[in-house]
Amino acid sequence: MPHTILPDLAWSFSGDTPESIAEWEEALSAYGEDVGMPVDLESLWLVLPVRALDVQYTYWVVGNNNEWQPKSKVVSVRASRLLSCSEILFEVHRASHAELEDQDHRFFEGLELLDEVFEKDVPAYKLLLGS
Question: Where in the sequence is the domain holding 113, given as residue range(s)?
Fold first, then answer.
């Protein structure tokens, strides 16, 4: 498994959630053009040797004492066939959009392989976010 996935892809989790993978890829391309970072389609369409992958992300909420508290969630991406990087990120966006759309750190900076896993034999990645 690659150590990082799509580290040069520009995307904001504040964007709407497209209905289909085709609309998703159109949105990625349009966003990349808007910010001067065109999408590398070869990297986006790279098929990884997995049918299952977990992605952990962290977002912040105000706790009981009006202090910001980190919360982490894991998106479990599962398919009956091998997954492309685009399909993985599409599923992550769909699952995390509600928590990430208003966060300061909502800009995609890649996926980084974790040493630990959440499920045996299923690779796990951390969603890297910037502001």
Answer: 4-130
